[in-house]
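Propose amino acids for all 282 sites.
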């Protein structure tokens, strides 16, 4: 497995792969990998990638000054061992200086899907995400890009970026991977105390119950949203948002659409902000 740290070497590697007739897949991550990340490698291959490049970069511009950029967990050696075992072809792990050393004044902004949900508490987050992913695309030159359903809003914002800016890339959204007890896998789960971790199980549990209730038309969507909020609060969580939205447009859903919809939420357990969602047709 090749470990690459510079943009020029990454571009060179990818051009060679294309010349050899390979289909290049990119899996962008911030590292501290878990099985959720590793499942994206399988999805890249299942969608035709014959060379998989995993990028590992904790992107400073998607963190607000009060957020956890400095303490975000990092372990490149462990990550590389996991990716090597997964037969990944290359890891692109640039430094912050390599990515932003020239004091950039140009950014990528999505103006609709990135305005609600997580953006209400993280208003500059998605501009950081779209900008870094555009830069990673230009470094890795992929044919296929895989993002996780775990970050539901992020995946839709990036899908829109690919569409609107004509990136010649197929963007695939890969299913959300959970622990056996339901907790969505996340690098940030490391911050949770044992008690917070136990309390946080209310997220996946209440989302599952919400889906079941809606599917049997047991309650209106606003009543279900209130019920999820109540359950989170009584388990010691602090709700950031709970919404029911169209899975493509992220617009509010209040009745049956016949399309894919999602219950999406964010909540704090202690100082840790967790997100989760459930996607289904309704
Ligand atoms: P991150 O390192 O948290 O920025 O995540 C990198 C990629 O992995 C994103 O596309 C995430 O949506 C995806 N991802 C993170 N956790 C999971 C999970 N539990 N299941 C599926 N994909 C995930």
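Proposal:
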């Amino acid at each position: 497995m090749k470990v690459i740290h510079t943009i020029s070497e990454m571009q060179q590697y990818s051009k060679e792969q294309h010349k050899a007739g390979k289909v290049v897949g990119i899996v962008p991550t911030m590292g501290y990998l878990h099985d959720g990340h590793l499942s994206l490698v399988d999805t890249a291959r299942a969608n035709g990638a014959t060379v998989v490049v995993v990028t590992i970069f904790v992107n400073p511009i998607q963190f607000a000054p009060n957020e956890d950029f400095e303490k975000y967990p990092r372990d490149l050696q462990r990550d590389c061992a996991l990716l090597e075992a997964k037969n990944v072809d290359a890891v692109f792990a640039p430094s912050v200086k390599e990515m932003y050393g020239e004091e950039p004044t140009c950014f990528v902004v999505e103006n609709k899907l990135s305005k609600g949900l997580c953006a209400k508490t993280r208003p500059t987050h998605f501009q950081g995400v779209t900008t870094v992913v555009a830069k990673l695309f230009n470094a890795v030159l992929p044919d296929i890009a895989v993002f996780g359903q775990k970050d539901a809003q992020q995946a839709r914002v990036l899908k829109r970026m690919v569409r609107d800016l004509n990136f010649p890339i197929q963007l695939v959204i890969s299913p959300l991977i959970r622990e056996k007890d339901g907790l969505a896998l996340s690098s940030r789960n490391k911050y949770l105390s044992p008690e917070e971790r136990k309390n946080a199980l209310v997220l996946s549990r209440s989302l599952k119950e919400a889906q079941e209730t809606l599917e049997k038309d047991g309650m209106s969507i606003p009543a279900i949203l209130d019920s999820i909020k109540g359950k989170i609060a009584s388990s010691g969580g602090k709700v950031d948002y709970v919404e029911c939205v169209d899975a493509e447009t992220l617009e509010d859903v209040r009745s049956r659409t016949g399309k894919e919809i999602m219950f999406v939420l964010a909540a704090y357990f202690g100082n840790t902000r967790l997100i989760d969602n459930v996607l289904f047709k309704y």
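The pocket of adenosine monophosphate is lined by residues 29-30, 36-37, 39-40, 147-148, 150-151, 174, 176-177, 184-187 (CB under 6 Å). The domain at 2-174 is CATH 3.40.50.620 (Rossmann fold).
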